[in-house]
Design a protein that fits this description.
The structure is a single chain. By secondary structure, the chain is mainly β. Helix content is about 15%, strand content about 50%. The protein contains five helices and 15 strands. It has a 15-stranded mixed beta sheet with strand order 8-7-6-5-4-3-2-1-15-14-13-12-11-10-9. The protein starts with a helix and ends with a helix. The N terminus is likely disordered.
């Protein structure tokens, strides 16, 4: 049994994106269930039909949420290549890679954000890092937030003159972009009532808004085995609701965002779950594996 366990650890370490066993106690409803699902050497990949508001119209597209556990460097805030050699620097995180693709007229949008949230919420109550990139035919932009002491250090790069290349600090508080991970870790710990929160980077990017904290009212509704977490930004006249399964592993079923656009028009973006796979996608990179995209309903 001892030799088998050693071999198991070696195999896990060899995988480029693969989850590593952690010493922290998960904050999910059941640590046994959490370990079986999230430390199985696989990621959860979920595809969604997307209706994305842009330029005053709704555009059809698709979104993908990819959740996976990783060993993360506390000092460098990057994925550790050799976690067994960096035990003091290692922290287990749940990573979300969130992608959106949609067309606006002749030209396409491709957007992605990554958020790294520690599993040990008592020791690390804030996400350590989140990044976002957006590409379309006009140009591309990039934003990164790194947790440092009591602030998030923010760097933004944009082809727009007024935005340009900037660096700033935002007081440490809850990130809208980490809500998705918090649902998967333990939705019972989601904050309710009046809260301070940094709105999502996708939202800030598309509406060209500066990244800064805002006040929102957070609430939870439950119906027919589903739970909806609602954020209402009254001052900004914006809301975001995320609906997920009440039962573990609390899969994200849908979301809806309503906001005022640049011209004052009310815009609604929403997405609905199509397919879910639990796969070691980083090992599925050959032509023979393309059938898996069909399994997700992706072109």
């Amino acid at each position: 049994m001892k030799n088998f366990n050693t071999l198991f650890v070696i195999i896990l370490t060899a995988a480029s994106c693969q989850a590593q066993p952690q010493s922290e106690v998960p904050t999910a409803a059941s640590s046994n269930s959490f370990n079986e699902y999230w430390y199985s050497g696989k990621a959860e990949i979920a595809s969604y039909d997307l209706e994305q508001s842009r330029y005053g119209e709704v555009h059809q597209g698709h979104a993908v949420l990819i959740f996976v556990t990783e060993d993360f460097s506390k000092s460098k805030q990057v994925k550790l290549d050799n976690p067994q050699r960096s035990l003091k620097d290692k922290v287990g995180v749940l990573k979300l890679n969130f992608t959106k693709k949609f067309n606006t007229g002749i030209y396409p949008y491709s957007m992605m954000q990554s958020t790294f949230t520690p599993i040990d919420r008592s020791g690390y109550p804030n996400s350590l890092k989140t990044t976002m990139s957006s590409q379309e035919w006009c140009g591309h932009t990039f934003t990164q937030l790194n947790l440092k002491d009591d602030n998030y250090d923010v760097k933004t790069y944009s082809y727009f003159e007024q935005e340009g290349d900037k660096q700033l600090a935002v007081n440490k508080t809850l990130l809208e972009d980490e809500i998705w991970n918090l649902i998967r870790l333990n939705y019972k710990n989601l904050p309710v009532g009046s809260i301070e929160i940094i709105p999502g980077i996708f939202h800030s990017r598309l509406l060209h808004k500066p990244l800064q904290s805002a006040t929102a009212n957070a609430s939870i509704e439950e119906e027919d085995g589903k739970i909806t977490y609602l954020l209402d930004y009254k001052k900004d006249k914006r809301s975001l609701s995320i609906t997920f399964d009440k039962s573990f592993p609390n899969k994200i079923l849908s979301w809806k965002e309503t906001t005022k656009g640049l011209g004052g028009k009310v815009l609604t973006t929403k997405a609905t779950l199509k397919k879910t796979l639990h796969k070691d996608y980083w090992n599925k990179n050959n032509k023979k594996d393309t059938y898996l995209r069909d399994s997700l309903g992706l072109e």
